[in-house]
Structures
1.
Amino acid sequence: MHCNVKYFFGQRCNKKYADTTNCELSKNCFLKTSVGSGFTMNKIIILFSAIALLHSCKTNNPKVYLLPTIHKLHQVNPQYGYDQLREIVAELKPEVIAVEIRSEDISRDSLYLKKNYPYEMWMMKQWFPTTRIEAFDWLGSDIEGKAIPENYWKEISAIKKYEKALNEDPVYLDRKSKCSHFNEERLPILKTKSLSEILKSNDGELTEKFYSCLAESLRGSVHQRVVDFYERRNLELQKKLQKLIDSNRNKKILILTGDDHFHFLKDKIPHQVWP
């Protein structure tokens, strides 16, 4: 948090006495401006408000962990299956677990969540029933604040329509196929490596190269909307996560997100190195 405390009781603190960059106020400045006539109730209120502001600057120090999940590949990866993920979360003992589910949906029943979200995301509240679960996903502005309809993914979802149109366009499908080898190189890593090995591998580099290649292949065409949606979703996730972190002061927070999103977010969200 950036503080800019310039005035106390209507008087400006000289730079000699006040350090606004580090959210600290010199005792000399305090004495100079607080002692004297007219010490009214309004001045007392201002004083305590300023003290509270300065205290909050110093005490908001959450410990954030950001880890990638691999969705259905957890089912086939013997080194990073659902059991290993659950053990890692248990060892971290987070006070808050942030999952890739929309806030509109986090309280819905398991049947609804199973139809719309990865297993490891909606199972967190069952695996860790005493831990607070927060949501941060975004699926599009057209469905914000609304329940996901029964036929959403096959008939309504904007991004699914965009991807379908791309896959039915032979010219741009061919261009897209030239990027496929990056994902093909990732698969052996995601299917066989432990979380620690995945984090140390070139998975991140391959992910970034794939999306860069895809963006270049589709630039200027109607299909650029596919990449635009991916980028918008990443930005929305980042914004929601930052708000979540800011509202959970001094907490140990674990953020779980899909591997593709992880490689975008890891440079945007300050976090602890795991393990």
2.
Amino acid sequence: MRLSNAASKEDGEKGEVMPRLGELVYLLEKEGFQILVYQHACFDVAAKRKTLSLLIKVLGNIDGLRPDVAEELKRLSACVSAFPLVVGESSKAGRLSNAVYERFGVPSMNLSTLTDCLDGSIVPRSSQGRELAEPDPARMRELREGLGMSRKQLGERVGISQQSVYLAEKEGMRFEARTLHRIERVLHEPVAKETSPFAEPKVVPPAPASGLERKLASFDFDVFPFSRTGFDVLAKDEKNRVVVRESVPRDLSRIEGFSEFFSALLALVSERPEKRAPVVLREELEGIKTKREFLRLLREKQVAG
């Protein structure tokens, strides 16, 4: 486990977040994840195992997630091929139940639900205070017809309309979780559709706004700016990721740890040489004409460092 040195002060929850953070790290390590704790950012924990990578924001109350933090979390997740999550214990309405909520497009849940999701269990979605589950239309129809039951008969036994059964079998209309459980009892088989809360967000690079961003974009990178990560830009293409900061931070281990965790090259851009770390001098950067030159320079400095 890699730990950052920064203490979390996000949204005034310092005293509350730390115990939950410890429980989350314990759970993820138990599930076989490699962990990077990276607080004081748009996420608190990065976790990866095999083909699954997560960026997790830890909050006591999931309604404490701000829209700007959510957008940066989604953007960073897309850049490093990870899934964004919020883990908390409550919302404004009270304690979270065993369901997947959503805040600003980020799946949100408690630790118990996260455990179920990691184990592959089917977990209902929460919408406006209701726990909803989606049936597998083909499976539901197959089981109903196998029992020689009409849509009307199934609806009467479950307590829903014939039209609701029709829409469920045609379009996968969602029901309250308890209603779907009644359908499964009548059909004697599970019909809930297996859906995962882990979804990589789709983001579009914004127009370059600074000289650095324009330079990186000229190398045919997708360029994403950040303000809550400890670096300024993440540039990526199909094969490479480059973490860029326009200064050398006091604590190099934090940004180095992130770069190493996500197999990214690190570019520290400075006006003058630094003893503590290999840097890309601004005049060097200005003289580079191609992506290949840029990547070669970074790798040479990485070896020299």
